[in-house]
Structures are given as C-alpha cells and as structure tokens.
C-alpha cells in the first residue's frame, strides 16, 4: 500500500514529465467538466446525461480521495473552502443517486481551477507566457470562476420560478449585466433571495474587475522573493532590492 501511495504522491506532487502530464490532464478534465455543466443545462434529464454525471462524480471522488490519502494532515484539508467545494461537487454529480436538488452545486468544481501549487509550478516551468503574465491570468481565472459560480446559483434558484431564466445562458446574461452594473432590466431576479444574489454579484464582481484592471495596468515587474526582506516584486533588470539593497540574482531567460 505504501508503494501505491508513493506512486500517487509522485503524480500529484512530483516534477517528472509524467507528473506534469498528469496534472495537465486534471486541468483538462476540469475544463471539460465545466463545458459539460454548461451544455447539460440545455439538455433534458436523460439516462445518458445522468450516467455521465455519475461517471464524473466517481472521477472527482477518486481525485479527492487520492489527494486526501497523500496529505500529511488530512484533517486540515477540511479547513479549506476548496475541499468543501469538491465535496459539494461530488454530491451534485451523483445527483441521480442522492437527489436532483443538489445538482446545481456541480458548478463549485470550478473553484479548483489553478488552485494547486504543483500545477502553478508546472505552468511556470513549461510556459514562458504564463510565467510572464501569471498575475493577469490568475486574476482573469478568478473572475471567470466567480461568473460561473454565480451563474450556477442564479440558474439553480430561478429557472423553475422565473420565466426570464430559462437556461444557463439566460443566467449568464443576467450575471454579466449585473456584474458590469449595466443592468438592462430585461432580466431580473425574483424575491428577496434574488435581490440578495444581485447585490452579491454586483459587489464582488466590481471588486474582481478592479483587481483585474489593477494587474493589467500596473507596470510590469518580475516575481522574485528578496532573500533578506522578502519583497516579492522587482523591476525586470533590478540588481539590488529597492527595499533593503540586497544583491539579487533574478533568473533571466536571455534576449533573442
């Protein structure tokens, strides 16, 4: 059993080419799952769709249990919001078994995108474009994840009672117009709960937009922790830390 655990740990945390491919495979699986969530919202609940739900739920559960098995302190994992998001997603994908009412929680799976340090390390090592634009990409991913999570909540709470929310695209349209404070008024959420959801979308959405704009328009700097004071961001050609004067050795890819 120890040998199996070591092999699993190597896949999730190792630096081999096989481990990198495995983690990229998990990222591709998460993206494919997100696409299925959107497409399945337009489909009637047929046995084929429910069967795919169960298969994805089993895969997500296997991934979750594997991560838990290699964690040195499994109990601490339950202090992370992403752990509970995974548990909610597992239950929702198994909705044909535990009840369709939990199905909307599957959108919480998107909270896992780019959330593991090992995957981020792989992306930094393998893709110079990601390394140069990491903060922009992560800010954009956070915004997109928020949009899809809120869209899932809007769709789940409104599509049975609100004639303006007939499918996932209607919910996405409302979320984006509220998030950008455009508010055309042709789609509104009903009831006190709907108004509260609208408030959350507007407040959190504007905050995430501002964060993305800040990253986009901030002067380009490289991320390299100063060994003395810990300052993270420096000018690309910096020789000394501007905070404490320590000599830096920032890796340079060289010029073309």
The major sheet is characterized as: 2 strands, antiparallel
Helix content: 55-70%
Order of helices and strands: HHHHHHHHHHHEE
Shape descriptor: globular
Low-confidence stretches: 97-102
CATH topology of the largest domain: Four Helix Bundle (Hemerythrin (Met), subunit A)
Distance between the first and last residues' Cα:
49 Å
Total tally of structural domains: 3
Output mean pLDDT: 78
CATH class of the largest domain: Mainly Alpha
Main location: membrane
Membrane topology: Multi-pass membrane protein
GO biological process, one term: action potential
Keywords: Ion channel, Ion transport, Membrane, Transmembrane, Transmembrane helix, Transport
In short:
By secondary structure, this protein is mostly helical. Helices cover 62% and strands 2% of the residues.
Walk me through this protein's architecture:
The chain is mainly alpha-helical. It has 3 domains: 126 residues, Four Helix Bundle (Hemerythrin (Met), subunit A); 82 residues, Helix Hairpins (Orthogonal Bundle); 35 residues, no CATH class. Helix content is 62%, strand content 2%. The chain has 11 helices and 2 strands; from the N terminus they run H-H-H-H-H-H-H-H-H-H-H-E-E. It has a two-stranded antiparallel ribbon. Helix 1 crosses helix 3 and helix 9 crosses helix 10. About 2% of the residues have low confidence.
What brief labels describe this structure?
mainly alpha; 62% helix; 256 residues; Four Helix Bundle (Hemerythrin (Met), subunit A); Helix Hairpins; two-stranded antiparallel sheet; 11 helices
């Amino acid at each position: 059993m120890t040998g199996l655990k070591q092999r699993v740990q190597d896949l999730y945390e190792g630096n081999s080419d096989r481990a990198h491919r495995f983690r990229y495979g998990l990222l591709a699986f998460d993206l494919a799952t997100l696409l299925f969530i959107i497409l399945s919202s337009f489909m009637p609940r047929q046995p084929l769709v429910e069967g795919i739900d169960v298969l994805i739920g089993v895969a997500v559960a296997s991934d979750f249990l594997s991560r838990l098995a290699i964690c040195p302190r499994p109990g601490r994992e339950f202090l992370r919001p992403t752990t509970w998001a995974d548990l909610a997603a597992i239950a929702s994908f198994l909705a044909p078994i535990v009840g369709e009412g939990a199905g909307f929680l599957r959108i919480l799976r998107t909270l896992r995108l780019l959330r593991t340090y090992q995957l981020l390390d792989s992306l930094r090592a393998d893709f110079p474009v990601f390394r140069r634009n990491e903060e922009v990409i992560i800010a954009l991913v956070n915004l997109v994840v928020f949009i899809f999570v809120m869209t899932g909540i809007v769709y789940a709470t409104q599509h049975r009672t609100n004639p303006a929310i007939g499918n996932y695209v209607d919910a996405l349209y409302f979320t984006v117009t509220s998030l950008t404070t455009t508010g055309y008024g042709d789609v509104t959420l009903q009831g006190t709960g709907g108004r509260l959801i609208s408030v959350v979308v507007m407040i959190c959405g504007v905050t995430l937009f501002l964060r993305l704009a800040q990253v986009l328009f901030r002067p380009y700097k490289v991320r390299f922790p100063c060994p003395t004071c810990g300052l993270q961001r420096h000018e690309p050609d910096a020789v000394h830390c501007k905070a404490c004067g320590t000599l830096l050795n920032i890796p340079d890819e060289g010029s073309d």
